[in-house]
Design goal:
The protein is mostly helical. The chain contains 16 helices and no strands. It has a single domain (2-282), classed as Farnesyl Diphosphate Synthase, CATH 1.10.600. Helices cover 69% and strands 0% of the residues. The protein is globular, with a radius of gyration of 19 Å.
Length: 291
């Protein structure tokens, strides 16, 4: 039983919890004393294991062939490499894990919360299951990552916060696109072996990195123009410089080794933690200076 629980936690990819946690925290500031509210902690827990178990559990359930070829899977950083027999049990377990939270949050926050949570579930179904299976319909598998942004709406509803400015929503959408593209770049070889269609497998590593670089530079510009934030934009600018070196000098079109991917994964989590602290401290994404 304990082994199964650890395997389910691994399926939820703790090393990739940072996007949902980061987006959940965006509406808060230190001055609000958010940590004194019980609802905050329940919501924070929900966007770690339960929500990511839904997202990645359905992903793995529908991605068995590609995952068999994927060397970076089989750990808590990038997810489990579970057997087909084990994955058959995952949808039911997802329902059992998610249902109590849906009931609790609906009782707490009303019909709008129920509709929001059902919509988030629907996005994952459309992404993973036929006849839609958007995950293999490039470039729509990138655009549908906007679903991650609904985590911020969940946070606002649950914690009775002010709605985020539209500028912040656009920034978070670009962040979600960029995070997904990074994973596609790492998975080009196993996805091609499994005949899985993604934007990265269609246009190649270098062009996909160029798209990611363009998104990063756009994010830097938006942070400077809309929010006048020099810390977060400075970090993304440094990341952009590294990606330029990666693209044009260091790796170019070469795949990363497993050790390199694990290093990048750990570095992403450290960077996410630092940016979470800054965002909470500064409230930099809450008050755009440009209309």
């Amino acid at each position: 039983m304990a082994i199964d629980i650890l395997k389910d936690i691994k399926i939820s990819r703790p090393g990739l919890w940072f996007p949902t946690v980061w987006i959940y925290l965006v509406p808060f500031t230190i001055e609000s004393n958010f940590w004194t509210h019980f609802e905050f902690w329940i919501g924070l827990f929900f966007v770690t294991f339960p929500l990511n178990y839904l997202v990645y559990g359905l992903n793995d359930y529908n991605d068995i062939a590609a995952d068999k070829e994927n060397a970076r899977k089989g750990n808590f950083l990038f997810g489990a490499k579970a057997s087909e027999q084990y994955l058959e049990t995952v949808p039911l377990k997802i329902a059992l894990v998610i249902s109590p939270f849906i009931i609790y949050f609906t009782v707490l926050s009303g019909l709008n919360m129920l509709l929001l949570l059902l919509f988030m579930i629907a996005i994952n179904i459309v992404y993973n299951f036929k006849p839609f299976r958007i995950k293999e319909r490039p470039p729509f598998e990138i655009f549908i990552q906007v679903g991650y942004v609904f985590t911020v709406f969940f946070s606002v509803l649950l914690n009775d916060l002010e709605m985020m400015p539209w500028q912040t929503i656009i920034y978070l959408t670009l962040f979600a696109f960029q995070a997904h593209i990074a994973g596609e770049i790492m998975d080009i070889e196993p996805d091609m072996k499994a005949n899985k269609r993604t934007t990265a497998t269609l246009i190649g590593r270098k062009k996909t990195k160029l798209i990611m670089l363009s998104l990063l530079l756009l994010e830097v510009c938006l942070l400077l123009v809309w929010f006048e934030d020099y810390v977060l934009s400075g970090f993304l600018a440094l990341f952009s410089i590294w990606l330029m070196l990666d693209l044009f000098i260091v790796f170019k079109d070469k795949p990363y080794t497993l050790k390199q991917m694990k290093f990048f994964g750990i570095a992403m989590n450290i960077a996410a933690l630092g940016s979470m602290i800054w965002t909470l401290y500064s409230g930099c994404l809450l008050s755009p200076v440009a209309p």
